[in-house]
Amino acid sequence: MLDADFFRRWLMNAADAVDREAARLTELDSPIGDADHGGNLRRGFTAVAATLEKEAPATPGAVLLLAGRQLISTVGGASGPLYGTLLRRTGKALGDTPEVDAARFAEALRTGVEAVAALGGAAPGDKTMLDALVPAAEALGTSFAAARDAALEGALATTPLRARKGRASYLGERSVGHQDPGATSSALLFEALARTAEGTERRETGHG
Ligand code: ADP
Ligand code: MG
Asked: How far apart are CA 175 and CA 196, in angstroms?
């Protein structure tokens, strides 16, 4: 079962990953954006980590709602409201149960991803974070590792696409040949999730 501490550790791991990869995310946002994606997410996830250090929400839903609120209020770019909505809607779908199983989390995450699509008006194939989020949420029904792999594959598959949403869409054909920064950061979030789940297994089996 996944408790509030699991979700807290996931977002802490995500904050570490974003911090480590911020330069690369900004580099990806240079040719097809405005070179701020790494900085945007670092600001957001630093705020998330700081808040989760101070406060200890009691349920998975409350952890995600709090983190989503931080992202919305601290990230200036398009990705802030989108990721904020992802976490908030996923958290809302989890309700106030103290522990959730992986299947329930997968279902809630699909609700969150649908909310991102509704907010941004994008669909898979538009060269956005949804190209990683949609297959990852689908694969989470199988395992955390499958979700991580699906997100990475989805992010890599954005390279040949022409952007139809967001800043990159202004470039038209010239957006082809570049990996989408938002899909790349989504892959990082699922990598952090899989790592968190592996750490939990080790704890449970006493090999940690
Ligand atoms: P901004 O584009 O405002 O500078 P960021 O650089 O932080 O914001 O984030 C850019 C990323 O946001 C893109 O790579 C893309 O994945 C994602 N994105 C932008 N617009 C949309 C949208 N309408 N729907 C889904 N994702 C989007
Ligand atoms: Mg940008």
From this structure: 34
Q: Would you say residue 141 lies in a domain?
A: yes
Measured between its terminal Cα atoms, the distance across the chain in Å is 18
Counting the structural domains of the chain, the total is 1
Domain contains 205: no
How far apart are the C-alpha atoms of 68 and 89, rounded to whole Å?
Answer: 9
How far from the centroid of its chain's Cα atoms is residue 49's Cα? 14
- Report CA(58)–ligand 1 centroid distance (Å): 31
The whole-angstrom distance between residue 175's C-alpha and the CA centroid of its chain comes to: 22
Q: What is the pLDDT of residues 50-105, one digit of tens each?
A: 999 999 999 999 999 999 999 999 998 999 999 999 999 999 999 999 999 999 99
Residue 96's CATH number:
1.25.40.340
Q: Could you list the residue range(s) of the whole structural domain that residue 28 is in?
A: 2-200
Q: What is the pTM of this model?
A: 0.97
Q: Find out whether the beta carbon of 196 lies less than 6 Å from any atom of ligand 1.
A: no
Largest CA distance in the chain: 53
Nearest ligand to the CA of 121 is 1
Q: Give domain status of residue 207, yes or no.
A: no
